[in-house]
Amino acid sequence: MEFSSKLLEKAVNEMSQLPGIGKRTALRLVLHLLRQPEDQTLQLAKALESMRTDIKFCKSCNNISDNEICEICANPHRSNEIICVVEDIRDVMAIENTSSFKGLYHVLGGKISPMDGIGPNDLNIQPLVGKVKQGLVKELIFALGSTMEGDTTNFYIYKQIQDYKVTTSTIARGISVGNELEYTDEITLGRSIINRIPFEASLKS
Fold first, then answer.
1. Which of 138, 160, 165, 204 has the fewest CB atoms nearer than 10 Å to its CB?
2. CB 172 within 8 A of CB 195
3. Which residues lie below 8 Å from residue 105, measured CB to CB, with a gap of 6+?
4. Which of 68, 75, 71, 113 is nearest to 93 (CA)?
5. pLDDT score for 178
6. In this structure, what DSSP letter does residue 118 have?
7. What is the pLDDT along the chain (205 residues), one digit of tens a residue?
8. pTM of this prediction?
9. Phi, psi of 51 (to 5 degrees)
10. How far is CA 167 from CA 28, 47, 68, 128, 152, in A?
11. How buried is residue 186: exposed, middle or buried, by Cβ count under 10 Å (0-12/13-18/19+)?
């Protein structure tokens, strides 16, 4: 692809690094931005810069936040005795959209995947285990996608906390095996949270 401007080429190359964006799509997006009023494009650039430099991760649950503690953890109307364990921030957003869960979350930041070189120590697991050991949690809901990596991660955490007085459950399997939470419709996901089952039962299925 030939460019008449090095500045244009650089912008296209940067845009094409986004997931699912090829060079041709990147070129269309960059040309669209170029045709917009200058202040509108600069507002977008400023928003992206601010997001990258100012955004924080909640010290309690590892969710994205504007403050040290996210709005969900800081909400006095949420139950801090029930924690929903999820892979990443997109899963928090998906479950929140169902309006079916009123507890707190714990974002692991991924799943155990030896094939990808991701082990337990690469994830945000120990802070969660620490909460259980302190007796702060009555129930853990495992809400990782029903993949081999998700099941492995669930089982690893379960083994870490099985000697403590905490109920463990997993979302009902209304979600197809292998599916990620973010692609599940809100009604199915909401019902799977409400109709969760004991984790021990899922080990026998």
1. 204
2. yes
3. 61, 63, 72, 83, 84, 85, 86, 92, 95
4. 71
5. 42
6. B
7. 778 899 999 999 999 999 999 999 999 999 999 999 999 999 999 999 999 999 999 999 999 999 999 999 999 999 999 999 999 999 999 899 988 899 999 999 999 999 999 999 999 999 999 999 999 899 999 998 878 899 899 999 999 999 998 999 988 665 444 445 565 666 566 666 766 767 776 665 5
8. 0.77
9. -60, -45
10. 52, 42, 28, 14, 18
11. middle
DSSP one-letter string for 63-90: -EESSSS-HHHH-TTS-TTEEEEESSHH
Q: In degrees, to the nearest 5, what angle opens at C-alpha 158 toward C-alphas 102 and 190?
A: 30
Q: Which two tokens stand for residue 1?
A: 């692809």
The rounded distance, in Å, linking the Cα atoms of 52 and 41 is: 17
In terms of residues, how long is the chain? 205
For residue 31, what are its two tokens?
């040309």
| Cβ-contact 72, 82 below 8 angstroms | no
- Walk me through the domains of the chain, giving residue ranges and CATH numbers: 6-54 (1.10.8.420), 70-204 (3.40.1360.10)
| Amino acid at the residue 152 | T
- The structure tokens listed for 142 are 């495992």
Contact 145, 180 (CB under 8 A): yes
